[in-house]
Amino acid sequence: MKDLSNLLDNALIxxxxxxxxxxxxxxxxxxxxxxxxxxxxxxxxxxxxxxxxVNFTSSFFLLAVVLFVFSDKLGNLGVALGxxxxxxxxxxxxxxxxxxxxxxxxxxxxxxxxxxxKIGEVKGDIIDIGVMNTTIMExxxxxxxxxxxxxxxxxxxxxxxxxxxxxxxxxxxxxxDELEVPIRAESDHNKAREVFKRVLEEICGDFASESxxxxxxxxxxxxxxxxxxxxxxTLEFNEEWITFTLRYIVDYKKRRTTKDLIYSRLLEEIRKExxxxxxxxxxxxxxxxxxx
Length: 292
Hints:
Layout lengths: L1 H39 L3 H26 L4 H18 L1 H16 L7 E4 L2 E8 L3 E7 L8 E9 L2 H4 L2 E3 L6 E11 L4 H33 L10 E6 L3 E11 L3 H18 L20
Antiparallel strand pairs: 1-2, 1-5, 2-3, 3-4, 6-8, 7-8
């Protein structure tokens, strides 16, 4: 009996040695391959994808080593896994849903690294998609505009089935944006419209042209109608002033800088035109004690 026990112990030790040896070999190969990739690949996106592929391949080979070492025990292992499978599935619901979410992302290609998204209340750029989690560099929150705030958010991939997902850059990497310009009622509104439209076409004309190509591809893929992508200027007024709404297409990464450029150019052009004056509200304070 003791000889049998010793034999089993020796066999187990031998298997463990083979597994450790295989792990070391795979780890060393992974290390040197990643070093070569970091030196040979300059593009950040390609480097990221290559590292992901190496990590996935390494995990596959590690699993293959374990299965090979215990190949003669797989029958008994299958029975044991079948017994505890239901309990594991119940205890690891979130983990299983997260893995299913990752598979959904990989198969459908609905999300990708570098895309700008809003998932639930979190808005930002995806910087990593793992088997369990997706990592986002957050935008906004206490920072105004589409700027990073320095917060990195990690979300379980189960969000695919639980949260509303807005993607700002997948099929159509452009956004419509608007700004309002109030001018005084006595201003020349025709001249103002001409000036405002010229500024928009000067700054956003290239965005509109480029976006047309993407929109054409979308109409071939989805049931979607033609859209107005050229800059547009509309007017409304009341008894106090005239308000122009300037609508335009902009690259999703350049929304804030483009708006700043438009405002700057508008101010320059308005100062050149004596017939256009910016409207401003005024507060009149009356002394009720006068005349007493």
